[in-house]
């Protein structure tokens, strides 16, 4: 597939945008008219710049409000179109997007619309360009691709096709079935955007909250698959209006966009394989698009002729390695120096962790409790040390347990995520790693049964003994990260594309000092969960957890337990500074859920919070105080299939942490 | 009037919120339930804290989803209400807000609703509390105050009244006429919020975008006036859910809220005087509210008995001095040191300004051209010097021309804006000033005809001669300020309350590196215009113009001219570095407005931009390059009553400035 992006999706001057597109590896761009108007460069110069960079101007856009019930205005619009066609010649662009009219003079009568679009098509023919008609979701009379397609089909002219845009179709939950009936060669252009589900005016939603495929909530494969199957040979192009993208560096946004296109292609491939009515392997569909598509018929062609096409090198190289679902966290690694190592180790000892092993050659220790592995890394000149120097005590890496580390790494690098290779000493195992979008490090550990683990090969036992009364930890339930502003989307795409983690609903959660945007990711089986949090406000607990160099910071680690009340009481008895929960909370929670007094007394006694979902699943969870006002630990007991994170209790936790901080400052 | 605010409107812990309310001078608060749940303090302690601070808990809120078609659930809801009434006793609160039900089991049948509310009223009576029923705009069946009032009237019980909320009423453009028929003593509580007009889901709008009266677009006086006229004696209370307020310091937000209540009272007073069907001065209406209201009748009482009430001291002191509309800018003052003075003076000389006067005793000069006065202040140890030290070359004060400076200052201080008195030397005039919310300084200058001006008394002529070919400046058309994030609302309230400037529509404008939120203020006659701009993105031209200490920065000064093309050409000829506008812009503007070639050639030649409004009014304007990548000048010619700011051309300007910066960095 050819890959393209609209210049409006990126920040900066036109030069910066074009350079970012070329660097990321796009084949083409949609030139947004305003970017040309604001540029000092003449159209011929822009054309040459694109040629020099090896990208084509695949589409000029938008041409608004073409049709009109006012004959004088329509005549002016035709003249306006003629001028734009001239401009396109100077740019070397041969396709233009014409979107449905939103104004009061928009044509309602079908025949009049067909007549006017027919005049446009003939003008386009004489100018040797192609116009693509697009239904805006908020068009006055034409707001579905189905309306647009009916008009285009009736005009029946080779210089007028349809432009399909996933946002305009999916935002109004439009019927997708008619996509099947649009022949690929009648599709002038395909624009892709994803979006979170928001209850708001569709125009505002479109202008500010679109995002790249894989970052939002739309299912794009059912939209893209029929288009590809019908032989569309043009680029898949990203048209994303997003307030965050408007300010983020174009280089970074462009790269994420390219990743999202690789992901969409991958999903469409899987979708076609699963749904292929023609029983033709998806590879053939992908192969055709760099070949030729000669169909001019009015009915869908299937892909009979597609299999004859030469499979393009790009289609070959773009197919990512298959997905390997992580099965959980292998370990978490903290960057420490000697002072903070003592402090954190003290916390962990109270928690019932034992320093089970130390590294053969490095100042690295492994703390264990049940299935939970935490590594404290004080090694000078290591990744951890550099991280520590920039930030101080925090998480510096998370290791995912996977069945096949090489395949997982391979897949991640197909999506252009950077592999990481740390310095490895003699007789030490190399652990493959990948750098997350925020710059933090994700290790990939495949410790199958019978295989020696990294702890066997690189560590030696300390023979320190675990306390007899260790807490009852069943694993790492979830990891909660604080991300810089606007960084959640990049991370969601990363986790979804590289590891197949599914993003859940986004929450806005109150902190006493602002709002927190939160979105959780989980593996299909729920064994790996990561919660991503960001806050525009500088005094929230999430903002405090950010690293000083601007990357992800650890907000908290939640350990699973089979009995939260017992474990919380036990930890408190062992001297772990648990977070005190206000009495007022318990009075409310008792009334809200109709809990019996004895149970509420137990919760209150152990400072355990409670939540219940609509299916009757229950969450019992408790928090520690913050370690140095930064991160903290949580214990989590899930009962009856409870699948959330107790977000209803987040305000109580945030207020309680704020209260402890306020006391400390007095 | 008593003044109150909901704790949910403020950030921080409950202690911080209560302290902020007391410091600002509120009489009471609405205690938002979640603030109590999240507090470590028992209800009795919260009660004592409020007593110690001299504020009452005027309302406990909210009680949600009371009525139910499910008898078992309704029984539980009654029990839930009984518990809340107990809690209110512990808090010392005797009023509770009960909002209309949003869930699927909400009661539709009027008689059933009246029955259930009747049970609530009798329960409230036995608990010696009063329930106030409020229609949420998104309630399932009850979403207008008119529905709520019908139910309350039919229940006809002294322990059940109505809660009126301006947002729920004005957001749905509800019919206000029935407010007249609600007797004041049947109104349990009145909540006020303003909001910008936004095309979005009303629930989301309400939860994130409410603002204080005077900051949004709602007309509050027609809502408040009938309530007051009918003898409502409780507080006017602010209930504002606003993302910015959630993070801003509670102290600052609380003070702005109090100002907004003073403003609402002032507007309601004016509205009553203008519309008073009872021909009773508004002062009497205001006076009654701290007296007693003994009406228990079911029909409006007018204010016959109101005039008998003792006029409260608060009502007296709260009435602000009358409004004096500024007639323009008297001068703008720049903070400079010796180096930047030379640089800016050089710019001004090219512009055709002459250094007409110098200060008698200070290192301060007056530059003049036509009616425009600019002061360059390099005086050590002055306000300007402190400002300069923190920030460098920028605007440090703006002086408004007013007919009566003392009254204006008096009015501003009634709204709790801080007066400013600078150090004044012997035989120098003292200029009254007021500190704007961002910390910048606004002088008030009343130079009537015949009165000696500050330039006469404090300055001596330099006898430098104006250039023969000065530009044709007709005045300062507008001042454009860059404000920190979330600071526009505070400034709008300031300018509206203190100076009577009217806020216009808010715009979101694109910069190559992000978005800019822009809102203009103008005096009724348009002779004083200030444009306020803010950007969450750090690389926009607005963000670059912010002062380093976090206050307002000068973005640009726009001078009026009677002929923009001639003036722009003239300035370019005099060596002013005008901003080059791309050719592409002119091709588009010619096509868009159907301009003739000769005119477009003139615009292009002089780098003048063009806009036209729907009434045919025209704007011709041109920009200089930025002085030190910070602020710049604009010249503006308004034709045929054009009243805007050419926002359609803002992207072109921002891109052109970015291009100049990029060239400078190469």
TrEMBL record, chains A, B:
Pathway given in the UniProt record: Aromatic compound metabolism; 3,4-dihydroxybenzoate biosynthesis
Domain VOC per the UniProt entry, residue ranges: 328-447, 475-606
GO BP, one annotated term: 3,4-dihydroxybenzoate biosynthetic process
Binding site for Mg(2+): 478, 556, 634
Isomerase listed as a keyword: yes
InterPro entries: DSD, Glyas_Bleomycin-R_OHBP_Dase, Glyas_Fos-R_dOase_dom, IolE/XylAMocC-like, VOC_core, Xyl_isomerase-like_sf, Xyl_isomerase-like_TIM-brl
Cofactor or coenzyme needed: a divalent metal cation
Keyword terms of this UniProt record: Isomerase, Lyase, Metal-binding, Pyruvate
Domain of life: Bacteria
Catalytic activity reported: 3-dehydroshikimate = 3,4-dihydroxybenzoate + H2O
Gene3D superfamilies: 2,3-Dihydroxybiphenyl 1,2-Dioxygenase, domain 1, Divalent-metal-dependent TIM barrel enzymes
First-level EC class: lyase
GO molecular function: 3-dehydroshikimate dehydratase activity; isomerase activity; metal ion binding
Binding site residues for a divalent metal cation: 134, 165, 191, 239
Enzyme Commission number: 4.2.1.118
Database matches in HAMAP family: DSD
Described function: Catalyzes the conversion of 3-dehydroshikimate to protocatechuate (3,4-dihydroxybenzoate), a common intermediate of quinate and shikimate degradation pathways.
Family recorded in the similarity comment: Belongs to the bacterial two-domain DSD family.
Protein name: 3-dehydroshikimate dehydratase
Lineage, highest ranks first: Bacteria, Pseudomonadati, Pseudomonadota, Betaproteobacteria, Burkholderiales
